[in-house]
Automatic annotation (TrEMBL):
InterPro entries: FAD/NAD-bd_sf. PANTHER family: L-ORNITHINE N(5)-MONOOXYGENASE (PTHR38663:SF1), PTHR38663. SUPFAM superfamilies: FAD/NAD(P)-binding domain. This is L-ornithine N(5)-monooxygenase. It comes from the Eukaryota.
């Protein structure tokens, strides 16, 4: 006879939404799912009215314009507030939102974002970041992007350009009325704004778990749900079940150091995204001992310029910066035509492309490889003039060999100058994304294969893995639907809007089916209506 005190094991919790990734894209989805009056769904006037009514719900009388009917104060006080779906977030870096983001910004010493003011993750207001800056008295933490609108042009040049535009019928890339948008926030200001969003939607309490996803399956699991397929997500600590899932993992793949002829020393060569301490401890020891130090930085993007500047500020004698192509300077990592007043034209052309391959070509053309911002271009020019940085364009590493006696690299370049012994090599070469190689997606790829285009998943317009599998792609992995801005903050917000609509529709359908089935069972058991209705197949 079984022990009467023996209890049956508890049924595993079934979440509505599970988000993998606690960065900007993941936070954008979580906050949008918690916002019931998103700015994207209404005009400014509608949004202001609905927000005003929501704040004063049950406290004021409301008169309908067409019918003249008056809903008195207190009559709607008992209306139940729409609840956000039950969600959990998994992040491999830390148990809090933006852990990886904060770590990288601190490591690289980044003072300001590269994105303009309307690139943010607040679902409630298009100008949420700008409003927050002025409401909190931190307008002085905004830096203008001089040149986007044309403020720094002389009066003569301005008149000449206006005359040329009149003759050609052309207009400015950025509208003068959008000048307030073309400032960039400081890193602390953006972090505070994200914290405000987290607190506003109650996303701080035990939602983000410091766990790494290991495997994702979508199937029937009788111990959780016998009627619907759900996700079974295994981490390095436990197993979760969820009706829907969101993949918001940035580049997704691990950074890889390019291979070159010669010896390799893992400790003396580091990918920028793997930096734990900068410069490395051996280099710091040489700096403290007043010995000359030389670093080699490989890459043509903003990170390479930031590392070169940071190294000099922290005492490195000289930095050799090599790029395999030309030095490109622009404010954003996508073309201004995708950001300015004519961005709708570019987006329309993208969405009406004949094929996903054509979309990928447009993405590659818009992003156009690595680039640095004009302010960092000035910093780099100053360091080059002071002989602190040596810049070599159209140059690659031909070979590298580690010298055990001197603990330095002997590096030979193709098309560049002869280098002195190098203490450390840093690779700011980005990450090549390919969802097909992600370990935790292998089970899903095998059971529900989808097409691949340039390493990106060919997902539905709702950002969904397939019509059958409610796994949604946020951020970079949604690039084929969102366009070249997908990896940016604007892509995080737009993607979150699409994903949230689809998730809410999916959960609504499941709840309606559940209610309908339970109602039919109740009618059958209480002899209401025809008992044969219970036999009807949906």
């Amino acid at each position: 006879m079984a022990d009467i005190n023996e209890t049956t094991p508890a049924m595993p919790q079934l979440h509505d939404v599970l988000i993998i990734g606690g960065g900007p894209a993941g936070l954008a989805v979580a906050s949008r799912l918690s916002e019931h009056l998103p700015a994207a769904s209404f005009t400014d006037d509608e949004h202001n009215r609905y927000t005003w009514l929501k704040k004063r719900q049950g406290k004021v009388s409301i008169k309908k314009y067409k019918t003249g009917a008056v809903k008195t104060a207190g009559s709607c006080a008992g209306t139940a507030r729409e609840q956000a779906p039950a969600m959990v977030v998994l992040d491999a870096t830390g148990g809090k939102w933006m852990a990886r983001w904060d770590y990288l910004f601190k490591t690289f010493g980044i003072s300001h974002l590269r994105s303009p003011m309307f690139f943010h993750i607040d679902p409630a207001e298009r100008d949420g970041l700008l409003s927050y800056a002025h409401m909190s008295g931190r307008g002085n933490e905004l830096t203008e992007l001089r040149g986007c609108v044309g403020k720094e042009m002389s009066k003569h040049k301005w008149k000449k350009r206006v005359k040329a535009r009149r003759e050609l019928g052309d207009g400015p890339t950025v509208d003068e009325r959008d000048r307030n948008d073309y400032f960039v926030p400081s890193t602390p200001l953006f972090a505070s704004h994200c914290g405000c969003i987290i607190d506003r939607y109650g996303l701080r309490e035990d939602i983000v778990r410091h766990e790494k996803a290991v495997d994702i399956k979508f199937d029937y699991f009788d111990d959780v749900c016998q009627t619907d397929k759900v996700f079974r997500i295994e981490t390095d600590k436990q197993i979760y079940y969820s009706r829907t899932a969101v993949l918001a993992v940035g580049p997704a793949n691990d950074p890889v150091i390019p291979s070159y002829p010669g010896t390799n020393n893992v400790e003396a060569s580091t990918h920028a995204l793997r930096i734990k301490e900068f410069p490395s401890p051996p280099v710091q020891e040489k700096i403290a001992a007043k010995k000359p130090t030389n670093l080699l930085v490989v890459g043509g993007g903003l990170t390479s310029a930031q590392l070169a500047d940071l190294a000099i500020r922290r005492g490195v004698t000289r930095v050799f910066l090599i790029m395999r192509g030309p030095l490109k300077s622009k404010y954003f990592d996508i073309g201004l035509e995708w950001v300015g007043k004519f961005r709708n034209f570019e987006q329309a052309a993208f969405w009406t492309a004949d094929s996903l391959e054509e979309r990928m070509e447009m993405i590659l053309a818009a992003r156009d490889g690595g680039s640095i911002t004009p302010p960092y271009k000035k910093v780099l020019d100053r360091l080059i003039a002071n002989n602190k940085v040596v810049l070599s364009l159209h140059t690659t590493i031909k070979s590298r060999n580690w010298n055990e006696e001197t603990s330095t690299w002997d590096v030979e370049l193709s098309g560049g100058p002869k280098l002195p012994p190098i203490d450390h090599i840093y690779f700011a070469t980005g990450v090549q994304s390919n969802f097909q190689t992600l370990p935790y997606l292998q089970s899903l790829i095998q059971q529900y294969p989808i097409k691949d285009c340039g390493g990106m998943p060919c997902i539905t317009e709702d950002m969904q893995w397939s019509e059958e599998v409610p796994l949604f792609m946020a951020g970079r992995l949604g690039m084929l639907q969102l366009g070249p801005g997908a990896p940016n903050l604007i892509g995080a917000r737009i993607g979150a809007e699409r994903i949230s609509w689809a998730i809410q529709e999916h959960l609504k359908e499941k709840n309606e089916d559940k209610t309908k089935k339970s109602g039919s069972q109740f009618d059958y058991l209480t002899a209401r209506g025809s008992r044969f209705e219970a036999l009807v197949e949906e």
